[in-house]
Fold these 2 entries.
Entry 1:
Amino acid sequence: MLRVFVTGGTFDKTYDEIHGRLSFGDTHVPEMLTLGRSRVELTVETLMMIDSLEMTDIERERIVARCAECLERRIVVTHGTDTMVETAAYLARHVPGKTIVLTGAMVPYAFGSSDGLFNLGSALSFVQVLPPGVYVAMNGTHFAWDRVRKNRALGIFEALE
Amino acid sequence: MLRVFVTGGTFDKTYDEIHGRLSFGDTHVPEMLTLGRSRVELTVETLMMIDSLEMTDIERERIVARCAECLERRIVVTHGTDTMVETAAYLARHVPGKTIVLTGAMVPYAFGSSDGLFNLGSALSFVQVLPPGVYVAMNGTHFAWDRVRKNRALGIFEALE
Amino acid sequence: MLRVFVTGGTFDKTYDEIHGRLSFGDTHVPEMLTLGRSRVELTVETLMMIDSLEMTDIERERIVARCAECLERRIVVTHGTDTMVETAAYLARHVPGKTIVLTGAMVPYAFGSSDGLFNLGSALSFVQVLPPGVYVAMNGTHFAWDRVRKNRALGIFEALE
Amino acid sequence: MLRVFVTGGTFDKTYDEIHGRLSFGDTHVPEMLTLGRSRVELTVETLMMIDSLEMTDIERERIVARCAECLERRIVVTHGTDTMVETAAYLARHVPGKTIVLTGAMVPYAFGSSDGLFNLGSALSFVQVLPPGVYVAMNGTHFAWDRVRKNRALGIFEALE
């Protein structure tokens, strides 16, 4: 059994056609799992729907608390890319003994050009086979939490030497 | 380094608008990797573009030969779902010591409702972390080659007890 | 008030993932109107769901009967492209005094690469402003029923000189 | 012969994945015409790429000047929805004797849920058959420039009584 915690991020941004801007509604994760015909046994739980630039330690503590107390030992966290690595470090310090994979998207799922479905398929797969630890799964690759950074100029995640 | 062998299947079917039917053109795999912003180092090689119901031992021998002789030890094979399990068994008998993951799609990538991008993200992830062996990766799950069958009535892959 | 008669054709073909082939289910027209945020007052009525190559005079008589007896004087007929011109001619002979626009698609709406939504927006617009007569609306253009043919080699509709 | 003037608006907004926000790049109109298999003879000319809330009389004068001086007598203008009606009124006062249709989208074309392709098919069709005048074509409907307003609360265009 697996748990997916939703926290928002680009992944889940949608277009608010009344106000003409990006915003958050319900998460797209269940729809994406249906599209992927996912047969993975899992529970999706939305913790918050925020831009990761607005994430503070208050939100991180909530993510930590839910990751620690849930029964599942394999967890995917969807997260904005800008502070994904910070949250990964926070989880690594506070939630030992579980396999936690953070993922997200560079382009909202609601856009035709989104990498979201690819990343979700990737994260769900890594989390099933990696040993306990905290990882970032983006661009088809996984990184240990302390071996990765987001290169904001290029919009990619890259390994720290 | 990873290699992706393309063999066709639903995954890569496209719509021939002149003749009004499904057919094969070039593979969509490179376009899908671009969409997924994949940063995985890999080479894509098209071996054939056929419906897996038309696959005979001649084609399977070709897949085996290329999997055995290529330098990469981690290989993804895109394949039609109908005989994916047969080809997996064939590979298991003839290509020891490599991690080979077969994947495909229930709906062509060119359709809006395709599971292809999710499955490709999944297969590329499993192949990077699983030990040597031959696996089928569909629906977010991986199966050892001798522990899976396609349930044609439901259109899903399921574990053999 | 406007009426849309659905007869099938490429426009409405969908992918049957159990059998791995194109088939017909329910029409996509209501979903397409929702996507287009259509505010046109209209009623959608499915007359049949068939490939237009299989259309005989029995089906054409049914289309004629419904076009003649419905109260609306402005009608869109969705239709397979292969015999769209034949049905247009049949309607022109049997349903005087109404504006009837036939449209369809070269690629099923369910495909990302479909021209269906463009053609539906076009046909609904032409039908609101053209004088009584029977027309084909494809590729952003309208043709009087006796001034058009489908060029099957190129997959386009073109004016007869 | 027809001319399409592009001015930006929601229609053409794209997602800037480096900065995580909506922005403008090149217009999507040529790609949309290709998708619609448009056979309409036309020239696309980008005048500006701006949000219509930022449009001032300086930009409107430029649109007027190009509409007046171009040889075509049938013109489509793509435009943000928020001030589409103001620009329509401006054109009506300054460009007599031509058929000008303004259109746009409630959701960017780059989103899967966009009404853009439907509206473009509609606008291109109305402009070919309506008499000289300035019109707004949205939601499958056309309105004379002085008989329409945008209902911002509902996100629709509606007829003025």
Entry 2:
Amino acid sequence: MPRFRHHVFICENRRPEDDPRGSCGAKGSAAIREAFKAELKKRNLKGVVRANAAGCLDACAHGPSVVVYPEGVWYGGVTPADVPEIVESHLVGGRPVERLLVREFAAHSRVLSPREKAPTD
Amino acid sequence: MPRFRHHVFICENRRPEDDPRGSCGAKGSAAIREAFKAELKKRNLKGVVRANAAGCLDACAHGPSVVVYPEGVWYGGVTPADVPEIVESHLVGGRPVERLLVREFAAHSRVLSPREKAPTD
């Protein structure tokens, strides 16, 4: 086993209120990490999957941003309400939550779905 | 290309001075991240390899702790002086720095081949 089956990093970077870029921390990302911790504990995944605070993940435009390793799946616009679905579908079931993927970072990730490969019309 | 070829997380968790567990932040990990940033910039790897602050990585006994994804290689007892070697050997050359590995986390980590590190699409 690797150290963690999945290592989930939640951006908690906080910029000054008047910074035009905004920041994940100011959008409530601490509550997202708390939701992950609670959900993982409920499913007895503590020590297997880790929800980790991170500084700026350089995905500010998509915030609050979350990246899951080792697979390198990026989620954007995540809310605490999305967390049970991410845990159930992705971290337990191995199926990333399509509607939350940051599409521009997903082009070559290992979990690419057929839908993402389809030409746009 | 994935979002980052390597995503390096440096634990910057800081506990109160009297906490017996100590903390990576109190052991000077902010300077480790600065060293990574400087070295990556020097090698024109900004945007390709990211040095990221992280909260507690749950590897306190080995701190200052650093984990590199997607390969899940863990380093412990890292100092700023070690950073050029990590960049040169591991992040550029694909050979993790043996003497800094956290052995108990290393059993099944996967090191990318040069081909995997540089997709040609």
